């Protein structure tokens, strides 16, 4: 049978479409064997006989995380690394806790759109589009805000009491790149000449930021 190439094009773009997040599943479940050394897109499946309810359970978001760190915030993931049963399902959650004034610093999730639901407190949140427009809002208990996939975003507790959100992602493992830590705290480190030119500052300023953001040894 002759198949017209142009008739296949929409299908081709469907599979490549950036609108899709994690790939669709091909079986009921595929509980991650997190110890496997095999490299696949995701994790290999555990034998069905070894699967039970604990693979689909996690109690780690029940309580506030400790926010007594430099940023005054803590992200607790509930992704495939914590819940092996999420493997191939394309969803995950996090809980984020914020001390008063606490910041979840500007970062991106390369593999997921995020929506946050405020459990309590008040947050200034925002993301920046590729056209460099800041879309921001103050959100409170019971309210939701969306951060489109891949765009740089942040949340800051603008209240005088602790705040917390539940974040939902359309990926089993969204991945996080924190902008400041990525550029100033990588190993090996990004050359000063790259950062001085990019940020239009001197070596001294770059070294100062690097010393603050260096990975803790
Ligand atoms: C991975 O290996 C560790 C240590 O051998 C073991 O305790 C754990 O149960 C294993 N995890 C899985 C998901 O098989
Ligand atoms: C479920 O399987 C794990 C090993 O993967 C085991 O440690 C645990 O005891 C099992 N839980 C139940 C309720 O059978
Ligand atoms: C944060 O507080 C907890 C509990 O009070 C404590 O165990 C921990 O050492 C503190 N961490 C820092 C970085 O101060």
Automatic annotation (TrEMBL):
It is found in: Secreted, Extracellular space, Apoplast. Residues 1-21 form the signal peptide. Keywords: Apoplast, Disulfide bond, Manganese, Metal-binding, Secreted, Signal. PROSITE patterns: GERMIN. Residues 59-207 form the Cupin type-1 domain. Oxalate binds at residues 104, 109, 114. One of its GO terms (molecular function) is manganese ion binding. Disulfide bonds join 30-45. Mn(2+) binds at residues 107, 109, 114, 153. Gene3D superfamilies: Jelly Rolls (2.60.120.10). InterPro entries: Cupin_1, Germin, Germin_Mn-BS, RmlC-like_jellyroll, RmlC_Cupin_sf. The keyword Metal-binding applies. GO terms for cellular component: apoplast; plasmodesma. Pfam families: Cupin_1. It comes from the Eukaryota. GO terms for biological process: plasmodesmata-mediated intercellular transport; regulation of root development. Belongs to the germin family. Oligomer (believed to be a pentamer but probably hexamer). May play a role in plant defense. Probably has no oxalate oxidase activity even if the active site is conserved. PANTHER family: GERMIN-LIKE PROTEIN SUBFAMILY 3 MEMBER 3. This is Germin-like protein. It comes from Dioscorea zingiberensis.
């Amino acid at each position: 049978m002759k198949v017209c190439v142009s008739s296949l094009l929409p299908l081709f773009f469907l599979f490549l479409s950036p609108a899709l997040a994690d790939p669709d599943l091909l079986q009921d479940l595929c509980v991650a064997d997190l110890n496997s050394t095999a490299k696949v897109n995701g994790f290999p499946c555990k034998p069905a006989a070894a699967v039970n309810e604990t693979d689909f359970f996690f109690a780690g978001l029940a309580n506030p995380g400790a926010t007594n760190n430099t940023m005054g915030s803590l992200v607790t993931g509930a992704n495939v690394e914590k819940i092996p049963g999420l493997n191939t399902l394309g969803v995950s959650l996090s809980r984020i806790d914020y001390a008063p004034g606490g910041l979840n610093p500007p970062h991106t999730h390369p593999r997921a759109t995020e929506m946050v639901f405020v459990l309590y407190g008040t947050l200034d949140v925002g993301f920046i589009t590729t056209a460099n427009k800041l879309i921001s809002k103050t959100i409170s208990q019971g309210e939701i805000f969306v951060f489109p996939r891949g765009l740089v975003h942040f949340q800051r507790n603008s209240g005088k009491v602790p705040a917390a959100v539940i974040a939902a992602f359309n990926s089993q493992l969204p991945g996080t790149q924190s902008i400041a830590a990525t550029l100033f705290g990588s190993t090996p480190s990004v050359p000063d000449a790259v950062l001085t030119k990019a940020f239009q500052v001197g070596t001294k300023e770059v070294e100062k930021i690097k010393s603050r953001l260096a990975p803790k040894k």
